[in-house]
Amino acid sequence: xSTQQQELPEWDLSNVYPGLESDEFSExxxxxxxxxxxxxxxxxxxxxxxxIAQEERESPALAEIMAGFIQRVAAAQELRESIRAYLNSxxxxxxxxxxxxxxxxxxxxxxxxxxxxxxxxxxxWIGHVGDRVAEIIGMN
Length: 140
Hints:
This protein is mainly α and about 140 residues long. Helix content is about 65%, strand content about 0%. The chain has 4 helices and no strands. It is elongated, with a radius of gyration of 21 Å. About 15% of the residues are buried.
């Protein structure tokens, strides 16, 4: 019986990013960093925090603030998930791919920061205006 080596299929991910060391992938990481910082600044500028006592604001102003946040967080999430899926595809098919594992490890704190901004800061703030959320959402 002869042993035959069979070539395993490879995923072509070049339609996402040309490579782990490509300018496009590097730019995506930079864009995500900027998007998370922009989101943090947006929250600070609009006094969105579970710790900050909320001044009374009119519902249209709150609707505008919420819409701005949702737009920004959606863009950041889309970029994060593109990057995360890209890296995980390398790791899932080659657990020895140290470059992909290192990239993911370096980006995890940024992913966590994005989650904190959305799930702690924004959702905590929503708790302060909770009785008006349905009205505010109806304005958009």
